[in-house]
What we know:
This is DUF2007 domain-containing protein. About 30% of the residues lie in helices and about 25% in strands. By secondary structure, the protein is of the alpha+beta class.
Amino acid sequence: xxxxTLRTTSTRWEAEIMQQVLAAHQIPARVLDLGVAPYLGLGxxxxxxxxxxxxxxxxxxxxxxxxxxxEG
Length: 72
């Protein structure tokens, strides 16, 4: 099974939240630590990975919602 890094974050908890969103849609994901252990509560960088075949669906699920601009 091939995995691809979908997003990197400066804190592990951000990656874990995205992992939970994907799990709610039955998309397997994993979180990898990229740095040293948390220091003074700042957190550590992490990467969110998904299977290659789930890449585009996962990107759509964790991307920010675009707001419609109104002319005025």
